């Protein structure tokens, strides 16, 4: 069975077809999906989605946060709203952390000071409630590492990792796993494929980032966007890069995700849906 540690099921692309998207993922044996919020106003919606589709995807969980791409529109009150939702969700076993948060120094037009303000405030919330974080680290690895070292954050996932090997080692030392997905299926993605091949296997988790980061084969098939059902084929290609069998890779990345997100592990523990995973 497969695990998708980063999937925006609440994206507009899925709005009218979400039952079909969920059914396709279930059919491909994707049994666990993490849905990160991107705005404070989305918190209740992602919580509702995780509950609504839990019978189809028993390991469907969510995190709450303000994405750096939305910080230009964010208000100070959003941090209060976010904390209120975090407090309300602590009793929900499907709530597993803070995210998607971080810094993006690639997209033009984003105010870096605004990004940093919201990022640091959300790291403070993660520290306050002792929650792991799902990080957006696009061209911002060093700044994020510096911010993490100032706090006691119980790890998390550096999503869509594309930094240097040395930066990867620093995230790992701080208790983070590194997310790999469709980008690694491109032959020209040499740095990402090297990282995937050479990093310790216990540092790697799988993700789609649906509907974004489509795998290489979609370009020739006329498919408009990525979806969690593609996690199975993506993960098999990642396993081949590692030189591992599909089953060994699936079990390993599952354990990695559960290790770094203990509330997710608690949800799955003892659940007969996951007895195949050792």
From the structure above, extract its key features:
eight-stranded parallel beta sheet, TIM Barrel, alpha/beta
Give an overview of the whole structure:
With 278 residues, this protein is α/β, with parallel strands linked by helices. It has one domain: Metal-dependent hydrolases (TIM Barrel), CATH 3.20.20. 40% of the residues lie in helices and 16% in strands. The protein is built from ten helices and eight strands. Strands 1-2-3-4-5-6-7-8 form an eight-stranded parallel sheet, sandwiched between helices. Strand 1, helix 1 and strand 2 form a beta-alpha-beta unit. Helix 9 packs across helix 10. The chain starts with a strand and ends in a 10-residue tail after the last helix. The mean pLDDT is 96.
In CATH, the architecture is: Alpha-Beta Barrel
SS elements, strand count: 8
CATH topology: TIM Barrel
Distance between the termini: 11 Å
Helical region count?
10
Q: Whole-number radius of gyration? A: 17 Å
Order of strands, widest sheet: 1-2-3-4-5-6-7-8
Walk me through the topology.
Blueprint: E1 2-4, H1 18-27, E2 30-36, H2 43-52, E3 59-64, H3 76-89, E4 95-104, H4 112-128, E5 133-138, H5 141-149, E6 156-159, H6 165-173, E7 176-180, H7 190-198, E8 204-206, H8 231-242, H9 246-260, H10 262-268
Parallel strand pairs: 1-2, 2-3, 3-4, 4-5, 5-6, 6-7, 7-8
Helix pairs in contact: 9-10
Summarize the structure.
The chain has one domain: Metal-dependent hydrolases (TIM Barrel), CATH 3.20.20.140. Helices cover 40% and strands 16% of the residues. It has ten helices and eight strands.
